[in-house]
Design goal:
disordered N terminus; eight-stranded antiparallel beta barrel; single chain; alpha+beta; 241 residues; Alpha-Beta Plaits
Length: 241
């Protein structure tokens, strides 16, 4: 995917208090009561950790034969980790199954630059059958759905006039509306080089609905109203995991 990467939360503590027995009931011996009766009747609900934004690099390229390329990619995992890269997802484009998307979490951008410029990477890609120039795009993920589980995704990338204005319209549309169109929010990210370049990843729960929505004039109006100023790049991927 340019995966994804499926953008991007804390629960309060619930306290249950019980009323004391009324004055007409016999009092219990103090020695049988908990030292702190209110504490004894308190149920704590663990709060999930707050989301921490992170960086992702999406690498896309075309290979001659996916079956030949994959062992080379898997065998290079130690090298990726040494450069501060963590595997997130690998996808195959639905229109061309030999067009590959690799999404990696970036823990150190300086190491990523070394990785991308390493002649050994270019040599390894050649041996693996990469037949197009790899494209590296670095995104800052500000929302991410940890429950992403679908095996098909759609990636939408477009430029907006003003990110905050766009975000208000996006949030007004709402996750429930998108889910009704077969699109489950996974990632909301912004390009590190251009913060007004927005990158979205959606899990697909219903392919027919998702494709219909991508071509829906109503969606195009929403995007126009939100200040989208470039033709959106829309790509569908199957998980290769």
């Amino acid at each position: 995917m340019t995966q994804f990467f499926k953008p991007f939360m804390a629960l309060g503590i619930s306290l249950l208090f019980f009323a004391c027995n009324n004055s007409t009931e016999k009092k219990e011996d103090a020695s049988t009561m908990p030292a702190d009766s209110s504490a004894a009747n308190t149920t704590d609900v663990a709060a999930p950790a707050a989301f921490t934004p992170f960086d992702v690099v999406e690498i896309t390229h075309t290979v001659k034969d996916y079956g030949k390329w994959r062992p080379f990619f898997d065998g290079d995992s130690v090298n990726r980790k040494a450069h501060g890269l963590e595997d997130i997802a690998v996808g195959r484009n639905m229109s061309d199954s030999n067009k590959i998307l690799v999404a990696l979490k970036v823990t150190d951008t300086s190491k990523l630059k070394v990785f991308a410029a390493d002649p050994k990477l270019k040599e390894g890609m050649g041996k693996a059958g990469v037949i197009s120039k790899p494209e590296f795009i670095l995104f800052h993920v500000i929302r991410s759905n940890p429950d992403s589980k679908e095996k098909q995704w759609v990636l939408v990338t477009h430029k907006v006039k003003d990110f905050n204005s766009w975000l208000k319209v996006f949030d007004a549309e709402g996750t429930a509306t998108r889910a009704g169109h077969g699109l489950i929010d996974v990632v909301l990210a912004r390009s590190i080089e251009d913060s007004n370049l927005v990158h979205l990843v959606f899990d697909i729960s219903d392919m027919a609905k998702a494709k219909a929505r991508m071509n829906d004039p109503a969606l195009k109006k929403i995007m126009t109203d939100a200040g989208v100023i470039s033709a959106p790049k829309i790509e569908f991927y199957n998980s290769a995991e």
